[in-house]
Amino acid sequence: MKNDAAVRPQANQAPVRLSKGDFVTGLRKLLQVAARAGETSVDVRAATLHTDVGVYPARGHSMPTCCTVMYEEMLPGDEILLTPPGGKGPALLVRYKLPR
Questions:
Q1: Are 49 and 26 in contact (CB under 8 A)?
Q2: Which residues partner with 42 through β-bridges?
Q3: Cβ neighbours of residue 45 under 8 Å, at least 6 residues apart?
Q4: Residues 54/40, Cβ–Cβ less than 8 Å
Q5: Inter-axis angle of helices 20-36 and 46-53, nearest 10
């Protein structure tokens, strides 16, 4: 078994630019896991999603892209629980209704 610290780059390493697709995949996987567990909704915080997908906080992070994906993946019935100043930031919190 690999140690997470050995697999993930550290915050002081060169930045890794994450794509929109990386965040879409990560968010959809999170929603699928929650749906399989029988949840009726899941609250997703941008900082947590970004950390799950790639290093955050880190120099050259992709938080704006992460937040854009969170907004774009919203469907009717989903709700924004917390909007950071400017609309994009690690505090963004969205409740996604399940099943999708």
A1: yes
A2: 96
A3: 90, 91, 92, 93
A4: no
A5: 110
